[in-house]
Amino acid sequence: MHVKVLLSTLLCTLLLQAESIDADFEGFDDSASSSTVYSTSSTQMSQDANNDDMAGFDDDTTNETSASTEDMDGFDDTSTSSATDASISSEDKVTEPVEVIAGLTGKFTEQVAFSLYNDTPHSNISSVKSSLSLDYEHKFENGWRVKTNVKAYYDAIYDIKGTDKFSSQERKQLQSEVELFDAYLEGSITDTLDFKVGRQVIVWGRSDTIRVTDILNPLDNRRPGMVDIEDLRLPVAMAKFDYFIGNWRVTPIAILEQRFSKNPPFGSIFNPIPFVAPANESYNDVTYALSVGAEFSGWDVNFYAAEVRNDEGQLKLPTLTQPQPLIAHDKIKMAGAALNVLSGSWLFKTELAYFDGLKYTTTGDKEFSRTDLLLGVEYNGIPDTLISYDIVTRNMSSYDARLITEAIPLKKHDYQHAFRVTSDFMNSTVTANYLISLYGEKLNEGGFQRAWVKYEVMDGVNMNVGVVDYIGGSTLFDSIKKNDMIFTDISYSF
Q: Options 3.20.20.150, 3.30.300.30, 2.40.160.10, 3.40.50.2000; which CATH number does 2-41+49-76+101-493 get?
């Protein structure tokens, strides 16, 4: 009931304000910069509402030449087209259903997960989740638009098995949730200057599985391995400008909201720690980032710089003014770059990031720096099939032996691999996917693999069936290797 009331209130508010906002923008500069938007060759099987402004090789829309667009056609995995016939007579027109709320769309999903975990209460059926996502978009006459997205879910498994069998922390985080996701205003100030402000997702880099330069948005890690990064990013309130100079785009960003990743709660099957983790320290400051990039025929390059709060954080012990322990997120500096080169059916990609000012629980105020390097390749020479492989190495400078005793042990050199295959069948109504991600130089330090099939039952109705296998090999993955799951869901978009 609380979920329905909150969603109804939000939608009513949007309806009442849409007309007044449109009136406020009358007379505003109607000019808008045009940009060619195309989809990446990523294995994105569903387009998330968070990624409306993140097509192509980077996170933002850019001006491109027609030659560049033709080069990228081989990697385009989704396309849309529309046509209208003005010559249709009034006698031939079919009466369409009246749209209840203009600009409102949504998706309703029912998901069931079966866990192979041996201990109650997480054994057998471990989730019966009902989810609702509502999107509202209003475009003004001058080209500006406002968009909001609300997501809510309720997992009935806690009622079915009995709430007293689960920890209060798990019930609080996983039983139900209503959250405002995207909520932004965007438009063109001049032909070469765009502006966007509000809760949004900005993607740096290209890898769909491993994060190197992609640091601006935290992740929802409460059920690791179940979905791709594109569905895990949490929007953050930011203000950004896009200034276009020929093929180049300069994007200064102010991060107005300090959010951190959501991790598995105490008592859940993905949290092996036998005590409740401290809460995150809260911050109200503004941090900054900058992206400079360009796209050319067959290749693109981006440069990044940022001073942000460390998403991982470190333990801050109690003091006289702070009676409870907290997870502190001190500021770190980052500089990086990403390069993508297209050659026939091959796409070669690389990301490089340098982090400075890292702190860890076991080493107190001592600061470290780290260099992360990603190399990847994608191949789409087989009809309706995409194959990709990424490898990243993370190298710690001035290594301290105490880092091996962190909750998640840190080595001087860490490695992660990701291999993915995606194939379409039956006129792209069936998509089969396989992903394996392993850690360690010799691929022997744990990871997971996931196989899933998505079937378009009919327009607006999709079904998804898959399995996740967690692989031991490290302290972390040994503790969750029994959490293998089979899952299925069906969704209806309206």
A: 2.40.160.10
- The torsion angles phi and psi of 319, rounded to 5 degrees, stand at -135, 180
User: Rounded distance, CA 262 to CA 271, Å?
Assistant: 12
Rounded to an integer, what distance in angstroms lies between the CA atom of residue 8 and that of residue 5? 5
Q: What's the rounded Cα separation, in Å, for the pair 300 and 63?
A: 12
**What average pLDDT values come out for the chain (494 residues) when binned by 10 residues?**
41 40 42 38 40 41 40 42 39 46 94 88 94 97 96 97 95 96 97 98 93 97 92 97 97 98 94 91 97 97 98 93 94 98 97 97 95 98 97 96 92 97 96 98 96 97 97 93 95 97
pTM passes above 0.70: yes
What tokens does 71 get? 């080069």
How much is the pLDDT for 21? Answer: 37
- Residue 261 CB partners (closer than 8 Å, separation 6+): 218, 219, 220, 221, 234, 311
DSSP H or E stretch at residue 487: strand 485-493
Please name which of 159, 230, 140 lies closest in space to residue 433, comparing C-alpha atoms.
Answer: 230
Bond into 218 cis (ω within 30): no
H helices of 248-387, in order, are: none
